[in-house]
Amino acid sequence: MLEGCPGSKTMDLREKEGQEDTASVKVISQLRQWPIQMHLISPMAPYFQGADVVLVADCVAYAHGNFHNDYLKGKAIGIACPKLDSEQEIYIEKIKGWIEDAKINTLTVLIMQVPCCSGLVKLAQEAAQSANRKVPIKYIVLSLQGEILQEEWL
Amino acid sequence: MEMEGYINKNIKDIISQYPEIGSILNEYDIACVSCNVGTCLLKDVVEVHNLTYEAEHELMKRMAKVIFPGNEVKIPKVKRKIGPAAGQIKYSPPVRKLVDEHAFIKKLLAAIPHILESLNVAKVEDRQLIIDSVDFIRSYADKYHHAKEEEILFKKFGEGIEIIKAMLDEHDIGRGHVKAVLEAVEAGDNQAIKERLTAYCELLKDHIKKEDEILYPWMDKNLTVFQVGELFNQFNEVDKGFEAASRKYEGFAKALEERFNRASQKIFCP
Ligand SMILES: [Fe+2]
Ligand SMILES: [Fe+2]
């Protein structure tokens, strides 16, 4: 049987329902900027200056329940889908702008475990290679259930 | 019976009270018996070695058996942060730079037994080689590399941590050996040069292994992303000021390696 693309394969994750304490505590948003989509952001916006930036695949924040506190708190963000977005060369230029002009402190790329998502790490690597300044880049891979599968500095 | 009371005890005291524990730790490649300092707490020792949970539990159980023979003992879990699995080390970029510097220091350490083999400090070339090696140790290994550790990296963890104190002590012991080597060169004492340079070689070889395999991975797990970026910038600043010098010293270490590799296959301290 043809399984098709693992990135769009249907998966039922409902068995997890009710397993965790569904928070009665209100989670406060840690977002400190707008916009966030990579086509819309300007790398020169003040909140990117010297910041620890997270470059996040669109699906990540839905998979990881505590995204705001675990990854967004104190950080600046750009989101993108490496599978579906068009004109991704623009992303490379913007990431390069973060590194060279906004002089960001670090870049963390957060992706899902599906194979097509690794394109976002490649994009970041390409931008970093063409930049005349170096920053530490790390990537984190999350499972469909939001667990960390891999966390490594490049 | 509780192990809890022991996990906050200094490892050297535990080993001197229960020598068998030293051999048990040895089986797990935890070389506290031969450590020059040994002031780390048992819980730090277990945490930083990043064993699998099963191995850690087994190790604690065996130690508990020695401390409380014949009794059922509750085994505490040592808190750890998630990181790469034991055995595979992935450093952050600034820490990787320090590991790369270790590689050059190890080239010099590997040359030491060759340098000492037929040493006669009365001979101009022999004397010069010792002086150049000491210059490498003092400038590259100490003023450059150890200063990055002491003034930047270790400061991020606070000086009060026992494992860091142990590393600082080893830096100091090394400085003592190097000073003695220079004095021995002045006195023309071949035997003293051999003894102290060999002692330095053994000390540093072990020190670097501990940092590469234990201390640095533990630090990487505990540094925040912000701190890694900050460390990267701080190291870059130091590196910029030392650029020409580090090229010179790294070249010296490489040349030694080539020279003695050709001469024979024997490497590392006697
Ligand atoms: Fe050190
Ligand atoms: Fe070191």
How would you characterize the overall build of this protein?
The complex is a heterodimer of chains A (154) and B (270). Chain A has a single domain (29-153), classed as Rossmann fold (3-Layer(aba) Sandwich), CATH 3.40.50. Chain A has four helices and five strands; from the N terminus they run E-H-H-E-H-E-H-E-E. Chain A has helices spanning 60-63, 67-72, 89-100, 119-130, and strands spanning 52-57, 76-80, 106-112, 137-142, 148-153. Chain A has a five-stranded mixed sheet. In chain A, helix 3 (89-100) packs across helix 4 (119-130). Chain B is mainly alpha-helical and 270 residues long. Chain B is 72% helix and 0% strand. In chain B, helix 7 runs antiparallel to helix 8 (162-187). The relative contact order of chain B is 0.13. Chain A binds chain B through residues 52, 74, 104-106, 108, 134-136, 138, 148, 151-154, and chain B through 82-84, 90-94, 96, 220, 225-226, 228-230, 232-233, 236. The complex binds fe (ii) ion (FE2) (2 copies). One fe (ii) ion (FE2) binds at residues 98, 102, 145, 149, 208, 211 of chain B.
Return the CATH topology of chain A. Rossmann fold
Order of helices and strands of chain B: HHHHHHHHHHH
- What would the CATH topology of the largest domain in chain B be? Four Helix Bundle (Hemerythrin (Met), subunit A)
Name of the level-1 CATH class of chain A: Alpha Beta
Number of strands of chain A: 5
C-alpha-based Rg of chain A, rounded: 16 Å
Topology:
The complex is a heterodimer of chains A (154) and B (270).
Chain A: E1 52-57, H1 60-63, H2 67-72, E2 76-80, H3 89-100, E3 106-112, H4 119-130, E4 137-142, E5 148-153
Parallel strand pairs in A: 1-2, 1-3, 3-4
Antiparallel strand pairs in A: 4-5
Helix pairs in contact in A: 3-4
Chain B: H1 4-7, H2 11-17, H3 19-27, H4 42-48, H5 53-67, H6 93-117, H7 124-153, H8 162-187, H9 190-222, H10 225-241, H11 243-263
Helix pairs in contact in B: 2-3, 3-5, 6-7, 6-9, 6-11, 7-8, 7-10, 8-9
